[in-house]
Every structure is written in C-alpha cells, then in structure tokens.
Amino acid sequence: MSAEGSTDSVKGKVKEAVGKVTGNDRLKASGKTDQAKGTAKDAISGDK
Prior knowledge:
- Belongs to the UPF0337 (CsbD) family.
- By secondary structure, the chain is mainly alpha-helical.
- The protein is built from 2 helices and no strands.
C-alpha cells in the first residue's frame, strides 16, 4: 500500500465507524468514499 492510500483508507475506516456509532449517515458515506480513494491510489501506484 502506498502511504497516501493507507492514510485515506485508515481515515475512511475511522469516519465510517464514528458514523455508525453516532448514526450519522453522511459521515459513514464519507468514510466509505475515503476508503475507495485509498484503494484507487494504491491501484494507481501499483501496490496491492
């Protein structure tokens, strides 16, 4: 994993978890988006 991809993935997981706990659907969706960004950055950099 690239450093940027890892950061986005971790940030997204935290946001998603907080969104689930607080019932904030917008925060949960934002977390999933950040995770997708991290996955995309890893794919672009060639990391798995």
